[in-house]
Design brief:
This protein is an alpha+beta fold. It has a three-stranded antiparallel β-sheet with strand order 1-3-2.
Length: 109
């Protein structure tokens, strides 16, 4: 299992990546992360909502309420135009990070 310390710098990229595809809500995003990583990374609820707050404060995502079938209202998140820009910037940063790390760990398996 990957530790949250290792993933901390990439949580925003993961969330923005998911929201690039479609609007979503917290539980759905959490499950998608768990599913796509085959359980190797489980983002804690506090980490997820802390990231939502930070991303929304920086105008990278926007929340809105949407009624569900049983009358409950669910908070959805969508990526903003600024968030799309940030996503591509973070993607470049991720690729550069991988290249740097590879210089140190190449062939050490």
């Amino acid at each position: 299992m990957v530790t949250s310390d290792v993933m901390r710098g990439f949580n925003s990229l993961i969330i923005l990546s998911i929201l690039m595809k479609q609007d979503s809500y917290g539980y759905q995003i959490s499950n998608l992360i768990k599913e796509k990583t085959h359980g190797a990374y489980i983002m804690k609820e506090t980490t997820l909502y802390s990231a939502f707050n930070r991303l929304e404060k920086n105008a990278l995502i926007q929340s809105y309420s949407k009624p569900e079938t049983k009358g409950k209202t669910r908070t959805y998140y969508k990526i903003t135009p600024l968030g799309i820009e940030a996503y591509f910037e973070k993607l470049v940063e991720w690729e550069e990070t991988q290249e740097i790390i590879q210089q140190f760990v190449k062939g050490e398996k």
